[in-house]
Amino acid sequence: MNKISIKFKLRLLFFILLLAITAIGYKSISISQDNKDRLEIVHSKSQNLLSLQDKIITPLYNLRELSQALVMAPNQKIRESILENLTMSIDRLDAAFFDYSKESMKIYEMWLNYKSLIGVTKSYLNLEFEEGAYINITTAGREQFGLLVKELLVIQSDLLSKSSLAYSEAVKDVVNIKIETFISLFVILLFSIIIGSLISNNIISSIHKVQNGLREFFEYLNHKREKANKIELVSSDEFSYMANMINENVQTIQNNIERDEILIKNATRVLLSIKSGNLGDRLDGHTHNMALGELKEMINDMIDSLEEKIQQEIKKRLENEQILLQQSKLASMGEMIGNIAHQWRQPLAQIIAIFMNMKVTYDFDKFTPLYLKQKIEEADKLTQYMSQTIDDFQNFFNPHSVKEVFCVEKACRDALFIVESSLKHNHIEVEFEVIDELKILGHKNEYSQVVLNILNNAKNILLEKNIKNPLIKIEIKEGDNFAIVKIGDNGGGIPDEFLEKIFEPYFTTRHKTQGTGIGLYMSKNIIEKNMQGYLNVKNTQDGACFTIKVLKEEQDEPTNSLES
Amino acid sequence: MFKYILILLIFINISFANEHLVKKIHFRDDDAASRAATPLHPDSHIKIFIPNIPYIYITNCTNAGLIRSFDNERGWEYELAKSHNRVDDFTYEFELRKGLKFQDGSEFDTDDVVLNFEYFKRSPFLYTNIDNIDFDVIKIDKYKFKIVLKQKYEMFLTDLARIYFHTKEYLEKYGFEGSETGSATKMAGAYGMGPYTLKEGYALGSKHTAVIELEANPYYWNKEYPKIRRVTAYTQLSAAKALEMITKREGELDFAPIDFNKKIEVLTSKYAKLNISKSTNNFIIFFNLINANERLKSKEVRVALNQALNQENLLNFVYKNEGHISPFASSVNYEIVQKILKNAKPKEQESYTKEKMLKLLQGLHLEVFTQDSFMFLFKGIEYQLKEYGVTLSYTITSSEKDIYEQLLTTHKSQNTQAWDLLIWGDDDWYYANPWSVLFIYEDESAWSTIGKDRVMKSYIDEYFITKTDSKEYEEITSKILYRAQEMAYTLRVPSPNKVVALNKEVIYKPYKGAVIPIWEMQITKDHYSIRGEREYPTYLEAPIKPKREKYE
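^ Those are the sequences you sent over. The predicted structure of the assembly is below.
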């Protein structure tokens, strides 16, 4: 069996099926023909019976009824009508009985006699001898009718028996045929099932083995098993060839997959290396997978390209940073100079006044050494103050490399000191409210720088929008763990679409010549990256409010500076 | 061709006896006349049943008048008179036959005529107007006499056929006691002059014996008659009993009127044959307008009752076609009635709608008094009236005298039996004259149950004095008939034929009126009374095709 090809097995199966169908079809036709023959016999018997009933017995009863009605007719008109029907009925029966005379001469004789008795009845009626007609029809006529019908009924009964017999035989035959058919069908089906089962089992067994082999292979492909076994078939049919082919291909695919896996592992390693900033590694190894090969080439190209672009971007950024820092420095310097200018405006005016006083005093000859000494001392104090101002500014902008615990209020006031003159000059009112005395750990100047940035921003907005009664509120208070500084203004607030972007670098609502867009970016970096705090902004009823939250220091801790 | 040869062969075969072939019923011709026995065989004897007016039928046999009712154009023939001459409207001259003798052998002449008329005038019968007519009988010689009426009366000659002569002995003993039913012989004996002598019993109308025995009168003037020595007449048999006696057994009855629906029994009998003849007999169904159901006094109700009857259906299904539909209570077979129907323009009668008839008749219950022989008719009537909500209940008798007892006393409201409808077999006793029916409309008569009707009385008075062969007679008869029809004095039914069962060995020719000519009857040699020990021949048992006597 194993040496027979599937094609031959299927042909064999088809041939057996064809043979079974042919056998069943032949049997069915044979049964139908038998049944038809039997039905013809039964039908023929029934037809004889029916013909006797329809053509003779029923019309004969009808004739009897007509002949009685003829006698009983209440008037001549009705009688004539009945007579017409009776004559027609006799004519039809005459023909029917004549035909039947071939079957039974006796019946025909009886009919002729009955007909003649009806004739006698009619003749009596013609003679208006109704009583005679009545007696004839109810005695001799009745008796002859009875004999005739009795004879017909015997024949009918005989025909019925024959018909019934034919029917019974047909029924019996049908039962036999049914049994015979069942046995034939059973044998054919049994033979077909056995042969079919053998062939189909053989085929299905091979299919199952191939199926299992394929399943294992697919499981291997889906990483559910580590290895796909070979499909082992002992037959030498099409399935065996198929199994061999599948085995060869599975082996090839398995090899390719292993090679691809090595390549993918290599790629993973390269990507990890890239992730850690090393762009020097490249994918190597060989694959038969064209897509994977292309991917490998693309990844290597991409890494090359990326490395190049990163270098370019770093370079560009560095340049930008430089420019930005330069800009920022210039801006800070400008602002610092502006602030110094504001600080210096008063002492300079006093110095000028001293000089004018000295000239007037000299002109009026009241110039004395004492006076000169006094004025020189006054001028000296003023110049010292101005010098102190420069120191203070230098200190403020001087970066410290150590963290320290510092007072939040002090840091805020330092920042305010820087811009205070400018604010006053611009008539901007400042409300400074210290609710809690708080200390925090960090670079104080950086923190003051952040406050100064926010104050400068507020000042700029208030001036830019030309706000009436400009106001900046500074509030220091304690949170659960944080020292909170809120700096609000009444500048109308930040448009909603800018709220998210305000801390991004180079973002500014001011003209490029007026702002760098780096201040708040840097402020956020200082608070959140350097001091692990939070810098947020939100709009209040009449302006914006910046909140600086930095982890507070306990009050009893020493204020000594610590090395970072 | 084959078919005809086959049929020929079969008929040849059929002519031989075959069990499967039934022979047709052969109705033989009545050959009794050809086998007639010698008249007045000493043992000759027949038995007859006379359910209706036996007093008339018996008197016809036992008595004789100057003339006798007969089936000829004038309705009579000379009996004791040889001839007559109507001198004028009032005078009749008669000549008697010579050699006439009473049944006792004594001679009869003009003196006996005068004597009998003397007795008659003292107590005449009451069913015509003769009781109101005075006349003289004047002897001319031994055989001739004349009768002179003192007032005009055109029914006198017909009345003479009912004025019978009795011996002086009888007259002195019983007189001529006329009544509503005539003047029949009251006692058996040789008192009359008819062909038979009353040997036993009597029949008077209001009473009669159940059996009457007659014997041939050897002195009867016509030596041709009678032809049978003895006659036994039964008067009170039930219809069923009479039928059984004549059809089932030989020797019990030779003559019996039968119900129409019993014809087949007679035809198929071994011993009886059927004799059917057209007649002037009538069935009169009286409405009691004297002392019965008040609703009957409404003419509309009576008209509705008449219209409710389908005459054709009665004729077909009840009479079995043995009769004729008549628009009047009287038979349509009277010559005068046929003339009237032919010449007179019929009076238009309102035809009631079914709704009106239902309104008039619904819930009407009528008590019927009848002889059992008429029950077949009442069953048919009851069936038809039931459709209109009329119900009937019956009092049945087998004797006509019971009918008379109630009928003749109703006009004076002396009837003892309550009745709304009463039937009387009014055979044509006045012979060929519708007076047999018209006399019931004479409102002062004992026969009338209609109450007073002055219009009708005036018509009847005129009828009495109108010559029967005149145009006026037709007119006045028409008036009476249509008046009775208009007033619906009776419940009209078809005029019956005479349907009689006869012994096959009796030779008989019926009269159309109320005469049974027993004296003309003959028997054959095979009659049970004279054939001795000999069995009745089988071939004679075959049914006889009935004779339908016709008189046109």
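Chain B touches chain A through 30 residues (CB under 8 Å). Chain B has a mean pLDDT of 92.

Shout if you want it in another format.
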